[in-house]
Amino acid sequence: MGRTSKDKRDVYYRLAKENGWRARSAFKLLQLDKEFQLFQGVTRAVDLCAAPGSWSQVLSQKIGGQGSGHVVAVDLQAMAPLPGVVQIQGDITQLSTAKEIIQHFKGCPADLVVCDGAPDVTGLHDVDEYMQAQLLLAALNIATHVLKPGGCFVAKIFRGRDVTLLYSQLQVFFSSVLCAKPRSSRNSSIEAFAVCQGYDPPEGFIPDLSKPLLDHSYDPDFNQLDGPTRIIVPFVTCGDLSSYDSDRSYPLDLEGSSEYKYTPPTQPPISPPYQEACTLKRKGQLAKEIRPQDCPISRVDTFPQ
Ligand code: SAM
Questions:
Q1: What is the C-alpha separation between 305 and 236, in angstroms, rounded?
Q2: pLDDT tens for residues 257-278?
Q3: Which residue in the list 156, 261, 281, 283 is annotated as catalytic?
Q4: Is the link from the previous residue into 296 a cis peptide, with omega within 30 of 0?
Q5: Which residue has the higher pLDDT, 221 or 155?
Q6: 156 has catalytic annotation
Q7: How far is CA 136 from CA 71, 117, 119, 193, 242, in A?
């Protein structure tokens, strides 16, 4: 496969490189902002699950220009530095990470908390949806500690079977909860974004990290919100029809653009989880499953009996 084929198949991947974004996800946040004016009046923001950092790039550029805004970015993985962005490497489901984030906001609450977190997908839909929901709830838990009243929370959500339970949990804390699908998010994916505006926790609510919102005793039979109790939140698509369709392939000579020239990724991953496997493969040391029938006789002979 040529290096230009991904540019053809995924126009947002190509445009991200050409515009200096570290990932195509930047367009999702830009399209969400266009619809909901997320950055209006924002000077302090938290970017949860931020690596490789395209949302942090957008935030640092949009909120009061680089330098005057304050962005704290958190991810399990190391992230190359970005001007004006404080980085924390940690797991957002862990108490220690949550505490570290909160420390940065002592006395000065954040206006916006965003989370584009995605767990490693297993392919088992129920497991993937559950893990995604846990990540969103961990992000919400952190948001309850740092958001100012009236603040905004945006988080990736999987529109799966039990999404109404999540909507109901979000509605406890925000006056408006919407489900938004940016045009740069593939139609074929169940990914969408919960846009929660007007942070307004219940009276008397005291954020408490020792009692996380994570619902470890989740009971699918008990927790179903079906029939008249089903929660329907407005569904909004962002990015008008003139923006590129993320499920389509486009020719390399895009209309109205200058002649196509291959652009390398803006910021290649600095220590991706697959790095070790690549090094071993290059050295021909990647372990292969050895089946006795594939072994030369002499090797089989040496197998322990
Ligand atoms: N918004 C990012 C950007 O624009 O560059 C892309 C985020 S990527 C889709 C999802 C990220 O979630 C990954 O970098 C992954 O390491 C992170 N993640 C997953 N689980 C996490 C956790 N428990 N704590 C912190 N980060 C996590």
A1: 64
A2: 778 889 999 998 888 778 888 8
A3: 156
A4: no
A5: 155
A6: yes
A7: 19, 8, 11, 10, 31
